[in-house]
């Protein structure tokens, strides 16, 4: 019996990485932008802190709800596709065998070998074979709604807590520059970590996250300064 060699690929991390990075990034950007917008309106330190905490709670719940609904819709679609495939396998196994063999021929196998591979895989687990090679549904890439929702909410809360910590520790008169600098540093580190774990370009990941986040914070601060009232 052949010894199995398992390779760890970056795609194994796609599911949880996407939700976690999105949540943490949104937590930092939205909360720091909210803090800057309120601070630019000359609000009190206490008001800024309350707004930030409210933003953390509301954002975490919103992220969890949105991610769950989105991924659950994907899961429902995958389930429906699998049920349809199960029915087709039951009603027309020869046609499904030919369909699978043609997929392997399209990938470069000789027709006779493709038929042998299709026969062997369908004898082992026909639905799994069609699920992976016809529908493109795998364990690593399949939808996991609860996992995605929890990862999004938790990572958002962690991300949002970072600029809130700055509000607690930074002097009120220097709150805006402290929030901007520390948030951009947090976001740059996050972008770099995400790029490294996902196997993407590190520099591009950092620049992309930092640029769009700075733009968001600048817009929020500008709105606060323009429409805020002097307390």
Number of helices: 7
Strand content: under 5%
Rg measurement, Å: 25 Å
What is the 3D shape? elongated
Question: Can you walk through the features of this model?
Answer:
The chain is mainly α. Helix content is 81%, strand content 0%. It has seven helices and no strands. The chain has helices at residues 14-40, 45-91, 93-106, 111-133, 145-169, 175-198, 202-227. Helix 2 (45-91) runs antiparallel to helix 5. The chain is elongated. Residues 1-13 have low confidence and may be disordered.
List keywords for this structure.
231 residues; 0% strand; 81% helix; mainly alpha; disordered N terminus
Summarize the structure.
By secondary structure, this protein is mostly helical. It is built from seven helices and no strands.
What is the topology?
Layout lengths: L13 H27 L4 H47 L1 H14 L4 H23 L11 H25 L5 H24 L3 H26 L4
